[in-house]
Write a structure and sequence with these properties.
heterodimer, A: alpha/beta, 21 helices, about 15% strand, B: seven-stranded parallel beta sheet, 11 helices, 34 strands, cytoplasm (chain B), translation initiation factor activity (chain B), initiation factor (chain B), eIF2B_gamma (chain B), LbH_EIF2B3/5 (chain B)
């Protein structure tokens, strides 16, 4: 299990001067815990996919190194072997002043699990950068780190700084140019504290609903729809323990960020750091893959551009008009390579072929009269004569037989063969592997267990795999034309209906106009004021009373639950201890006091006594006596305080006067019984009497009834208080 | 001043406000309540005159009050302003008031609606100009929300507010602070914030401000205002109904859809139906950036989808400007103090070297001191050893010896006996305070007699 690199640990202990200065650490999640890059990610982890011919993780690591991070923990889960072996072969393990350690896990299904595991390892000692391996950035961390540290010094609850960047989503289709969902955030303009975070917005609701408490402390707040979450977080070590404390936190944003924002109990705060000229973007889906690739080619990510980042042996040179060319490219005179393209090492391009704004990997073989536009072609791909490819992603080892056509948005996973003159329809996802059966379409589980088992098989034994493939060869050949090989995945229901959203292909105009129309209609809806109530005078404020009702009904629920629990205990002969435990859990979930429990349990007991008295022949008082004797131990844990006991008396009074009038004539008798059973002490009864002294006559019915007993108690107290104490 | 042309001003002077009892009455409606010895309405009218907005209708609730206001205006402003006074029934609300006088509003292109209880030095012309520049449906003036409670008298009674600065409105602005994107007023302020996503999407950013207040001064496009009032018969208040409605519907304007053909209007609906080229030139001619309304109307690819939008603009008064509404007793005290104090230029008087105004005809006894930020009206007399601090004393008051007046307002013809002490109080006209009366944080209604030696604190004293 990814033994920690000795060097890093050694370095810290050696430099005794640096004990105070904790080296800047980073956690790099080499697993996005999503399924958005399927089918490609069934065979290779996303972080190893080439982005303008360099694996994504190299961008992330390069940035971390340049930003002054000294120690990186790479968390590998899905395809962990591939990631680790890639890193082992790379130069990352041998960089001076930059320690890369892998942490491997096979059962983590979310970022939350990952962070909990890392917490257990106890390797993070100070502030750290949390990033996933598909994030491309060139920002300087200095400023953000300084802000974070300063805030932390003043307020230990400032546990996280999120990096955001301006990006205006398209208002019609509700997504950014990265293909991510629109994001609504509220930020305090002065302190930059994050107050509200809503991604995955529910578009059916036209209203952004913010708690009024957000405004009670701030004279102003900024609502933003024009910000993009860069998924680069600077975290204090507390973040890890927060994940451990809240074991249900899975998703970094949906659970952790929202959880902290909602929880005002702990008072943890998240702040944002906005970058302006720097670049930062996460590759979340195929659209962002396309967008970020273009940004790299257009050099927005400088110095993270192909000609500066030279990995491996092949140098890439930038030529005019944004053409990146590696060495040993053989290109026909008649071939046209348009601006903003990248061509990898050793690729051959035939006569009259046209390549426009695309990325072609290493060792590709492109025939004649091929038209490639807006495509991402990985390594060792063979494209025979006369093929047409538009806005597609083509993985390693794919063969396209002559005349095959890829319509926009097609994804061809590894080693797929497209048959002669076969047209792969729009947005098709093609893989040699069959589409996994969707047992539980929980998005969290990217490389879900079944598939990771499946893919590891692919990793381990390529030979075996191909034989498997051969078996299915003939069945699948029909799917991709003559001589083709691969399965066209069926679109799953729901999620992929709007496949155009996250595709590499540009959004078709008709989709946009469609979305615009929907937006119009939405406006129409909002309009009548049916959603926004007309303010002020038109509608009297009725909300408050509703709230009260809710409170009441919660009380009711609590009592009913306790009663039901009690009855079950009686009928099923459940032990007292267990019953107490159950009542305690109700107490916690309804946020009640001990006194409430005492009242509720007592109520349940009396109700039971009454019901059994009705059904059986025994007198009411007999039943009450037996119930109290039998179950008083359930009640006593809640009666530690005199106040709790008074609560019970008051509850009893209420029952007698309202719900269960049968007890009314027996009030003083039962009170005496309770005294005898030590459910209520004399202090409680006397205090109750005192409290009632100034009440209305109508409220004093039962005090008067019990007057004889109270007198007797007072008398006893005066006479032999000492004796009683000894008892 | 060309821009001021074609603006009809409607001054909503109110009637007899319950919140200001016992200071006001049928004989002395809100509009005539003296603030630093001048009727409240004169502040608004002078401000309008200063901005060359001279064509006005003063709307008063109640016939009697209207008569009083009318006779005062004709006496004071006869040759300065062109004023009509219109009476409307009481409790019709601000929207109802406009509805009631709509027959007078037939010509002007825009209407400036001013609340008559506004005391301000904000140049109203600038508000009108902002409105015109954006060709907005409505432009609202915003000012800093006053910090309630006075500066130095922590004991000032009445308000049970907490120490926090007052919350009046929640206002959502675009980043350029030109457009009004969200407004919550009245009961909405205390509730959760509910912002339309469509507007946030279009604008990208909305800054929600709790420290600004809607000053109840609006410029409306006349046809828009009248159409909204006609269509929405239930709208009662401009501030709480009409303005929020226009703000809500700004991206999908349905005003003027079934209205009269607006051929002569240079409104947005025409602009948008024109070609892009013309539109852009129009915007450039208006010397303002293409706003998000326009971008929104154009759609993401510049395709003119002929969407109707309209603009709701704001004019934010600079922080150095004074702007307050006299709508409570607390505000009455604060404004009086302010007008004779920090904002003395508003009073229209010239202050002496002691930073106070003592009318030459006033008489002061021996060893009587009138401190800075004080005002003493004509013909008032004070006995010996009196002391006046931060207070306004009206005309023809007779004040005995050894009287202390601190942080108070004394109106006209008030008689104050010897050794009285008045602090934080408002004494209306014709009140008689017999000797040794001690008042703290009291309001004394017109003509009331406070008997000798009585001590009152935080009380309202008025004739039944």
């Amino acid at each position: 299990m990814g033994a920690p690199k000795k060097s890093s640990a050694a370095r810290v202990s050696e430099d005794s001067d640096e004990l105070v200065r904790v080296p800047l650490q980073a956690i790099l999640l080499a697993d996005s815990f999503t399924t958005k890059f399927r089918p490609i990610t069934l065979e290779r982890p996303k972080v190893l996919l080439p982005l303008v011919n360099v694996p994504m993780i190299d961008y992330t690591l390069t940035w971390l190194e340049s930003a002054g991070v000294e120690e990186v923990f790479v968390f590998c889960c899905a395809h962990s072997k591939q990631v680790i072996s890639y890193l082992e072969e790379s130069e990352w393990f041998s960089q001076p002043n930059f320690a890369v350690t892998t942490i491997e896990s096979h059962n983590s299904v979310s970022a939350g699990d990952a962070l909990r595991l890392i917490y257990e390892r106890n390797v993070i000692h100070g502030d750290f950068v949390l990033i996933s391996g598909d994030t491309i950035s060139n920002m300087s961390l200095t400023e953000a780190l300084r802000e974070h540290k300063e805030r932390k010094k003043k307020d230990s609850n400032a546990v996280m700084t999120m990096v955001i960047k301006r990006s205006k989503p398209n208002p019609a289709i509700h997504q950014s140019r990265l293909g991510t969902d629109e994001l609504f955030v509220a930020i305090d303009p002065d302190t930059k504290q994050l107050l509200y975070y809503e991604d995955k917005a529910d578009n059916s609701k036209g209203i952004l609903h913010l708690e009024k408490s957000l405004l009670s402390d701030n004279p102003s707040l900024s609502l933003h729809h024009d910000k993009q979450d860069c998924y680069i977080d600077i975290c204090s070590p507390e973040v890890l323990s927060l994940f451990t404390d809240n074991f249900d936190y899975q998703h970094l944003r949906r659970h952790f960020v929202k959880g902290l924002l909602v929880d005002d109990l702990m008072g943890y705060k998240i702040f944002v750091h906005e970058i302006h000229s720097d670049y930062a973007a996460r590759i979340d889906n195929f659209r962002s893959y396309d967008t970020v690739s273009k940004d790299i080619i257009h050099r927005w990510t400088y110095p993270l551009v192909p000609d500066v980042m030279n990995f491996g042996n092949t140098a890439t040179k930038l030529e005019r008009q944004g053409m990146y060319r590696a060495s040993e490219i053989s290109q026909s005179q008649s071939a046209v390579i348009g601006p903003f393209t990248a061509i990898g090492f050793g690729t051959k391009i035939g006569n009259h072929s046209k390549i426009l704004s695309s990325v072609i990997g290493e060792g590709c073989n492109i025939g004649s009269n091929v038209h490639i536009e807006g495509c991402y072609i990985f390594n060792h791909v063979t494209i025979e004569d006369g093929c047409i490819l538009r806005n597609a992603i083509v993985c390693d080892g794919v063969t396209m037989k002559s005349g095959a056509v890829l319509e926009p948005g097609v994804i061809l996973s590894f080693k797929v063969v497209v048959g002669q003159e076969f047209v792969v329809p729009r947005y098709s996802q093609v893989s040699l592997l069959q589409q996994p059966v969707e047992e539980d379409s929980d998005e969290e589980l990217e490389y879900a267990d079944s598939t990771s088992a499946m893919t590891s098989k692919v990793d381990n034994s390529d030979v075996e795999d191909t034989s498997q493939v051969l078996d299915t060869h003939f069945q699948s050949s029909s799917e991709l034309g003559v001589g083709g090989d691969g399965y066209i995945w069926s679109k799953c229901e729901g999620g992929h209906e709007e496949e155009w959203r996250h595709s590499v292909a540009p959004i078709p105009a008709d989709k946009i106009s469609e979305a615009m129309k929907i937006m119009e209609d939405e406006l129409e809806l909002t309009h009548d004021g049916s959603i926004l109530p007309p303010s002020g005078e038109l509608k009297p404020d009725s909300n408050d009373s509703e709230d009260d009702d809710n409170e009441d009904s919660r009380d009711d629920y609590f009592e009913k639950e306790v009663e039901a629990t009690f009855l079950r205990a009686v009928n099923e002969n459940i032990q007292e201890d267990h019953l107490i435990l159950e009542v305690n859990s109700l107490k916690l979930s309804y946020n009640k006091l001990a006194a409430d429990c005492a009242g509720a349990v007592f109520y349940a007991m009396m109700k039971y006594a009454l019901d059994s008295a009705r059904s059986s022949a025994g007198s009411l008082i007999q039943n009450v006596k037996s119930v109290l004797t039998k179950w008083k131990n359930v009640l006593t844990p809640y009666l530690t305080d005199i106040d709790d006991q008074i609560e019970v008396i008051l509850k009893f009074e209420e029952m007698c006067s309202e719900s269960v009038r049968e007890f009314a004539p027996l009030f003083s008798t039962i009170l005496h019984l309770m005294y005898d059973e030590e459910i209520v002490e004399e202090d409680a009864i006397l205090r109750w009497d005192d409290e009632k002294r100034d009440a209305d006559e109508s409220d004093k019915v039962f005090v008067n009834q019990a007057q004889a007993m109270i007198e007797w108690l007072r008398h006893a107290e005066e006479e032999d208080g000492d004796e009683e104490e000894e008892e | 001043m060309m821009v001021m042309m074609d603006f009809k001003v409607v001054v909503l002077a109110g009637g007899v406000s319950k919140k200001l009892l016992p200071l006001v009455s049928k004989e002395l409606p809100n509009a005539l309540l003296p603030v630093a010895n001048r009727p409240l309405l004169s502040y608004t009218l002078d401000l309008l005159e200063l901005s060359n907005l001279k064509d006005l209708i003063v709307v008063v609730e109640g016939r009697d009050a209207a008569r009083e206001v009318g006779s005062w205006i004709s006496a004071a402003y006869a040759d300065r302003l062109q004023v009509e006074v219109a009476a409307v029934p009481e409790d019709v609300g601000t929207a109802g008031a406009i509805r009631a006088i709509s027959r007078y509003l037939t010509t002007a292109k825009d209407i400036l609606v001013v609340s008559g209880d506004l005391v301000s030095d904000v140049p109203l012309g600038a508000v009108a100009a902002t409105h015109r520049r954006h060709d907005a449906f409505v432009t609202a003036m915003l000012c800093s929300a006053p910090v309630s409670g006075s500066l130095d008298s922590g004991s000032s009674g009445g308000k049970d507010k907490t120490k926090k600065p007052g919350r009046y409105d929640l206002i959502g602005l675009d980043p350029t602070k030109q457009f009004l994107l969200h407004i919550a007023t009245g009961a909405e302020v205390g509730k959760d914030l509910r912002v339309q996503k469509s507007i946030l999407r279009a604008a990208g950013e909305i800054e929600i401000r709790a420290d600004l207040m809607d000053a109840h001064l609006y410029a409306f496009k006349r046809s828009v205002l009248l159409e909204v009032l006609e269509q929405k018969g239930t709208f009662h208040s401009l501030k709480q109904d009409v303005l929020p409605y226009l703000v809500r519907s700004q991206l999908k304007s349905d005003v003027l859809l079934n209205g009269i053909p607006q051929a002569e209007e240079n409104g947005n609906e025409k602009v948008i139906s024109q070609s892009n080229q013309q539109m852009i030139s129009q915007i450039l001619a208006n010397a303002s950036e293409p706003t998000f309304h326009l971008r929104y109307a154009l759609g993401p690819h510049g395709s003119s989808s002929a969407r109707r939008t309209h603009k709701c603009c704001v004019y934010i008064a600079g922080s150095s400007k004074y702007c307050a509404r006299l709508n409570s007793i607390q505000a009455y005290s604060d404004i009086n103090r302010y007008v004779i104090g920090e904002a003395s230029h508003l009073s229209g008087y010239s202050f002496s070297s002691h930073n106070n105004i003592i009318d030459p005809s006033a008489e002061l006894g021996a060893k009587t001191t009138v401190g800075p930020h004080c005002m003493l009206g004509e013909g008032s007399q004070m006995g010996d050893k009196c002391s006046v601090k931060r207070s306004v004393i009206g005309r023809h008051c007779r004040i005995g010896a050894n009287v202390k007046v601190v942080n108070s307002i004394v109106m006209n013809h008030v008689t104050i006996g010897d050794s009285c002490s008045i602090q934080g109080s408002v004494i209306c006209s014709n009140v008689q305070l017999q000797e040794r009366a001690v008042l703290k944080d009291c309001q004394v209604g017109a003509g009331f007699v406070v008997t000798a030696g009585s001590e009152c604190k935080g009380e309202v004293l008025a004739k039944k």
